[in-house]
């Protein structure tokens, strides 16, 4: 059987499974997430479906909104889970992208699929939000949308962050909404520059969960609302130290004695910052001052893994991780931040490093805040990641 035939069969199988699984899976998930999803209208053109990203089931919610089959673009870490990942690859034929970048091979695969008339779904940020605001979108996304020769659908999932914060260990009940923001036809895209398309995408899918709460406050009820917040917040506004924050139930603490309550509206009470987003802005600035002053960042009980070409992981080092003088060091392994090909975050705290053609991950059994290392990378290199 030649490669063309294999590809055609793979696509037919993916479309079949999409049609079979969509009503069985997406309807219960939408009800479980209390998400009211607007469906796409009938369209003659095939399309690139672009959405923001806040929960682990956004792919399923996107499928609920699109009766027509779509192929999904998924990060590599999704396909490191053994036989479930292999089954997913076989059934839905997703397009795999490296976490932290939109590689040329991925762009070519998406472009070819769109030009063949397929519908493609991509979560443009490539990251779930840590603080309630839609994150960084790679500028080349505008070029991709223009080069594909398909229509563009921009879709915004609202209240996902307050329903399932990236850092949290629990789901909160308050209600989500999926909204078709705009549909740009092929003809409209042809008259727009790649930069204009990029600006339209950024504008259409942007959400600030806290601005929305300020306009129309809504409670998001759940248990242990604050637990996991130390995956995002790493610098105490009272003592200014990094690494002393921890959580229990609905409260965030610092070793210095600071104590804050995280409420059902997603706000922090009892400290200088009520919004996680405002705290995050402040700590990034503070971290820059910290690094410029020559101070180190360190965490113990961290494991470094190498990712093999077949998406498997193998441990190469365990122990203390130190960021000093622009280098991230694990035992005998040392990575100059300005020589990395890219960095990214997966889940709450797993980080990916791309160095000298090899992918590495670091993670820990404890509640590690990998976000501070991404912020350090951005500060030292001047490159935007999230």
Which features does this protein show?
alpha/beta, 7-stranded mixed sheet
Query: How much of the polypeptide forms β-strand, as a percent range?
Result: 25-35%
Major sheet summary line:
7 strands, mixed
Report helical residue fraction.
25-40%
Structural class: alpha/beta
According to DSSP, the number of beta strands is: 18
Q: Ranges with pLDDT <50 over ≥5 residues?
A: none
Sequence of secondary-structure elements: HEEHEHEHEHEHEHHHEEEEHEEEEEEEH
Q: Order of strands across the biggest sheet?
A: 1-7-6-2-5-3-4
Mean pLDDT: 92
Fold blueprint:
Layout: H1 3-32, E1 35-37, E2 47-51, H2 58-65, E3 71-75, H3 83-92, E4 95-97, H4 104-115, E5 120-123, H5 140-147, E6 151-158, H6 160-163, E7 176-184, H7 186-190, H8 194-205, H9 209-215, E8 245-248, E9 251-254, E10 259-262, E11 268-269, H10 276-292, E12 297-307, E13 313-324, E14 327-330, E15 333-336, E16 342-346, E17 350-355, E18 358-364, H11 371-381
Parallel strand pairs: 1-7, 2-5, 2-6, 3-4, 3-5
Antiparallel strand pairs: 6-7, 8-9, 9-10, 10-11, 12-13, 12-18, 13-14, 14-15, 16-17, 17-18
Helix pairs in contact: 1-2, 5-8, 10-11
What does this structure look like?
With about 375 residues, this protein is an alpha/beta fold. Helices cover about 30% and strands about 25% of the residues. It has 11 helices and 18 strands. The chain has a 7-stranded mixed β-sheet, with helices on both faces. Strands 15-14-13-12-18-17-16 form a 7-stranded antiparallel β-sheet, covered by helices on one side. It starts with a helix and ends in a 5-residue tail after the last helix. The mean pLDDT is about 90.
């Amino acid at each position: 059987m030649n490669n063309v035939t294999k590809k055609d069969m793979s696509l037919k199988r993916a479309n079949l499974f999409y049609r079979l699984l969509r009503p069985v899976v997406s309807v219960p998930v939408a009800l479980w997430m209390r998400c009211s999803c607007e469906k796409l209208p009938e369209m003659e053109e095939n399309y690139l479906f672009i959405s923001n990203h806040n929960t682990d089931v956004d792919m399923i919610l996107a499928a609920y909104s699109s009766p027509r089959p779509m192929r999904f673009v998924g990060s590599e870490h999704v396909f490191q889970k053994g036989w479930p990942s292999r089954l997913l690859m076989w059934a839905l034929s997703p397009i795999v992208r490296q976490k932290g970048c939109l590689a040329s091979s991925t762009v070519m695969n998406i472009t070819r699929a769109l030009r063949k008339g397929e519908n493609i779904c991509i979560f443009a940020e490539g990251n779930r939000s840590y603080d309630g605001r839609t994150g960084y979108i790679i500028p080349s996304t505008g070029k991709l949308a223009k080069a594909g020769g398909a229509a563009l659908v921009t879709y915004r999932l609202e209240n996902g962050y307050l329903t399932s914060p990236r850092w949290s260990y629990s789901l909160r009940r308050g209600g989500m909404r999926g909204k078709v923001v705009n549909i740009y036809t092929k003809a409209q895209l042809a008259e727009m520059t790649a930069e204009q398309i990029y600006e339209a995408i950024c504008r259409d899918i942007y959400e600030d969960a806290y601005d929305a709460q300020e306009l129309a406050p809504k409670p998001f009820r759940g248990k242990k609302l604050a637990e996991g917040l130390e995956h995002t917040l790493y610098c105490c506004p009272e003592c200014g130290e990094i690494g002393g924050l921890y959580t229990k139930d609905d409260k965030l603490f610092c070793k210095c004695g600071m104590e804050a309550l995280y409420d059902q509206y997603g706000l922090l009470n009892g400290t200088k910052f009520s919004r996680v987003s405002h705290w995050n802005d402040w700590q990034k600035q503070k971290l820059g001052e910290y690094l410029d002053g020559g101070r180190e960042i360190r965490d113990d009980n961290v494991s470094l893994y190498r990712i093999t070409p077949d998406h498997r992981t193998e441990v190469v080092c365990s122990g203390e991780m130190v960021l000093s003088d622009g280098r991230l060091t694990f035992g005998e392994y040392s990575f100059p931040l300005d020589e990395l090909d890219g960095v990214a975050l997966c889940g709450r705290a797993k980080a990916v490093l791309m160095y000298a053609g090899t992918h590495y991950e670091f993670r820990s059994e404890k509640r590690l805040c990998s976000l501070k290392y991404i912020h350090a990378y951005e500060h030292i290199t001047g490159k935007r990641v999230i």
